[in-house]
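Notes from hallway chat w/ T.B., transcribed later so I don't forget. T.B. wanted the structure written out for a chain they're using in a teaching module, and asked if we could keep both sequence and structure tokens in one place. Agreed to drop them here.
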Amino acid sequence: MADVRGIDGVRVRASGKINLALRVGPRRSDGYHPLATVFQSVSVYDDLEVRPAPPGEFPVTVTGAQADLVPTDGRNLVVKAGRLLAEAYGSPDAGAAIAIRKSIPVTGGMAGGSADCAAALVALSVLWDLDVTQSELLDLGKQLGADVPFSLMGQTAYGIGRGDDLVPVLSRGSYHWVLAFADFELSTPAVFARFDELNPDPSPALGVPTGMLETLASGDATALAGVLVNDLQPAALSLRPELSKTMAEGMDAGALASMVSGSGPTIAFLASSEEAAIDLSFRLSAADVCRTVRRVSGPVQGAKLVA
């Protein structure tokens, strides 16, 4: 591997995710909902660079899309990741300056904050030259957020519990997606609260749609379109009905399927091929139903060191 450390810094790239299946059970006494989900990482990225800083200090700077929406104090998961990693494997007095360049939408249902957190765990473990394994990073990730372990792992995976108990899933070929980024945000807790209102007695029996794992192994995009599911979608559309118009425009423009990504408000459209995705992205952009359109593919790696 190329030396990813600059004179005094380490750079890591982290990918966003789409939930190909997201099944949600009844709210537990601890406030969480049991999940059964299939994640796929896609090629929309945040870039993170870490450099040495005075002991115990973790200054954060953020640039790029929606940078003004990202906290730069102790609320940011990258700061929490640094403090947890330093306490567990390094020196409690370790510090780092963290620079984030955003492309993954903020509170967009694509785990952008978790991606940055995963990138921080990887980057700081290298910066501080820690003897920490991938398995140990995954355990730390569970303490920081439900989506952090998958943001470390990437590719395609089946998750249960809070979505952080993961099993890799065989996924052949590459799937082509067009993402419609909204000009507003959706709070994940608000979407789950609306889910509870709409589903006072949800089924406790969770599982991914029949045939989804076999479909991913076959690499058949048309078949995958028929088994995509998101139990949070009705709640997200209830809170922001205008998303239904975005979904309808994409379907009219030739998408195989449309779905809310995670808790939203990003809408993911599955295309039959790269060429179809290019055409769909142009037509969706012209419809003026979202902030911006991004064409991506998946699966891709999770948080990784870059030269």
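Follow-up for T.B.: The chain has ten helices and twelve strands. Might be a good example for the class.
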